[in-house]
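Friendly challenge for the regulars: who can give me the structure tokens for this chain first? No prize, just bragging rights.
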Amino acid sequence: MAKETPIAELTEAAAAQELAALADALKRANRAYHTEDAPEISDAEYDALKRRNAEIEAAFPHLKREDSPTEQVGAPVSETFAKVTHAVRMMSLANAFEAGDIADFNETVRRYLGLRDSDGPIAYTAEPKIDGLSLSLRYEGGRLVQAATRGDGETGENVTANARTIGDIPDRLDGAPDVLEVRGEVYMSHADFAALNKRQEEAGGKTFANPRNAAAGSLRQLDAKITAARPLKFFAYAWGDLSEPLAETQLGAIERLRSLEFQTNPLTQLCNGMDEMLEHYSEIEAQRATLGYDIDGVVYKVNDLDLQRRLGFRSTTPRWAIAHKFPAELAWTRLEKIEIQVGRTGALSPVARLTPVTVGGVVVSNATLHNEDYIAGRDAKGEPIREGKDIREGDWVQVYRAGDVIPKVADVDLSQRPDDAVPYEFPTVCPECGSEAVREEGDAVRRCTGGLICPAQAVEKLKHFVSRAAFDIEGLGARQIEMFYRDGTLPIREPADIFTLEKRDADTVSKLKNRDGYGEKSARNLFQAIDEKRKIELNRVIFALGIRHVGEVAAADLARHFGSWAAFTSAVDAAVPAAQRFLKAEEAVTKERQTAAEQGRRAEITATRNAVWADNPAVPAEAKAAWDDLVGIDGIGATVAVSLVTTFHQEAERASIDRLAAELDIQDVAAPTASDSPVAGKTVVFTGTLEKMTRAEAKARAEALGAKVSGSVSAKTDLVVAGPGAGSKAKKAAELGVETIDEDSWLSLIGGS
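First reply, four minutes later:
Bragging rights claimed.
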């Protein structure tokens, strides 16, 4: 099997395009899987899609969408069942596919907890990941009072009557806490599934595609008698709301659930460190075909519940657990044609059009080819991939579904290459507008230089502008944007045109209400929906502009830091001279790198950069200060700052942005809510080694108390927390007269907060 292409080889445009496609595909899959009990893809394929989404977001955090699948669990509940609000949210799990992913997980846990090698290995439980339907059972006073599906994690469906018919679910418990929510998986064995399908077929009823679908459909019956007739089983492996702890460890809690007469998986085992985890994974994988029920991986959980509480949660997943999934599937097919798609940043992205083939139960006809280097058989550093084999139209190719909604072409069979196949020549002009397509040094992607004259870029930018995480205007989606862009009477060519649409409609003879697809009511609804979005949050506006490198997270960071549109634009404008000087410094560094190998010469390269920075009489002090403030925002940095300044400094782009802003009521960011904390509203910088908490914990605590955490020291810094090894930041703080304290003083300062 060909090695999976590193995420690092994705271009930003391809990443953004793929994230959008993944969000749509996962939303459809969630609804089909959780709400309609009619999955369009397998569980393994779904998990692979979600994994791919998470990997891309980790590599391109600024591209993370508001409707990101990583921020969602399950799907909205069906209107057929009564809704149940979970007392404790039902989370999903982060996924891993390789041993290296597990090593990363283990290292992340250790780093977050501040553990050293001398502290020894962390103990984890390892258990099979059942391929079934999540269920939460609430017991009060030892009596089952409610059963609910996971739903979207916060709200599930009330299936209490159906759950009572499952033999593995006790109706009463002896010796249980007064309040106990038991969580686990409803599933169906292979033998029972085969027997059920045989009975269904004989009765002329619906047969099921797999045991998971059968279990889900059976549990979510309106008539509990039908559920009772289905051979459902239940494994308990977790808990939610509790009136008292079950145990001090994960394994102890599982044993407690077993003592309460719940079925728990006999393959659950305690593992001390990585080697034992991977060994147990291999043992379970070897038994997979003989277990008699479906599993799709192994779940690892930190065994110590105190450590679990300390690690806490991300938005939808715990930091203390991960699912180690079984390998993805492969297939071979013919690559019929290579086509180029142009994204909103002008990136030319190659896509393989394939003879349709089934991979893991899904019919695939398209695959990503990443960029021109990937097609040519080399990586971002020019090193051979696929043993240097290039990809050509007509090739017999291996398709790899490891998480892409558009899968990868992973390998080529040269023995089946047609005699007339020729190397693919990547275009040097935009296929949409004919403008030159250039590839800047250090960039893996070739981009159209047409800008606003390129219809593909203009349309994609407008689609981004109205996307869910941006303006999210009801009734104005991608299809309507394409229609209005090409409309000769009421065109939408830039964002401001959206907000002048009603006025322009009133001035035209051919009214929108008379167009195909619109009537008087739908036209009025559209105008109203547009008006409702004139008042909008600052972070949404920044994100909606579609500036390269500025995703949802970066937009939120910028909005939180500057607070208002006026402050944001003023800061970007003020930083222009410094940004231009920065680019000159980077050009000098590039030339320095070209003249000799970088290794061993970092000091000289740094000296070159510093020399150019020092030679800046044309850069006003206020410009330098504005630049330092901008790049000092935690999570921003020079790349995003240059992109912002470049966009706002381009005359045509700036005029378009100003026309948009004139149509809007952009809301200021609210002041921190933790106003009673001693650091609320202050800008804090952590530097050096923190010995009593990790950097991640310190940052999370500071932000929870209403502070802004910056990555660099400037005149706007209020407080520097310096641990051992603090260097240039502590020195700069002293030069600027910024208050500097040690870690103990920091903990004392926030101790009562």
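Residues 563 and 670 are 7 Å apart (CA to CA). The first helix runs from residue 12 to 35. Your move, everyone else.
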